[in-house]
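Technical note accompanying the year-one report. For the benefit of new consortium partners, we illustrate the data format agreed upon in the data management plan: each record pairs a sequence with a structure-token string. No post-processing was applied to the example shown here.
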Amino acid sequence: MTLERLLKAAKHSHISGHHDPHCYHAWVQGKGYVNDGNACLFDRADYLRQLDRDVQSEIDNLGFAPAYAEPGYNQPKNGVVFANWNRFPQDFDTLLEWAGYAVEWSDEWTTCDECQRAFRTVGDSYGWKPAGRFIEGTGELCIDCAEAVGF
């Protein structure tokens, strides 16, 4: 099953009411944050419209890398996918991993501008060392690509 088909199914499962988002509160104009729209009949439609927009926005801005540049990670069969997973159904990450993708948070990872592999931008432990660098005029590079150009 392709990544596009899995994402489309996840979006549809929200709107049809089969699965709740992992952690999501919709902002509804004039009402503020609405948890799941069940408090009032009219809130539910607004909630679902906003959820649909937010999930589609996350799909449109999904990050992808063919492999990891970060040491200590097993290489995924189909690549690494980055997003804000709170907007997707609970356990959707497990389904993606079953389909051969590694799942990471978009605010903690980036890709090398040269080789497109993924590396962390935020530490995950006390002993973590950056596996990439931002180089003025060149962009974000993994350690391997930065060393290849002399940095």
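Partners are asked to follow this layout when depositing records. The longest strand covers residues 79-83.
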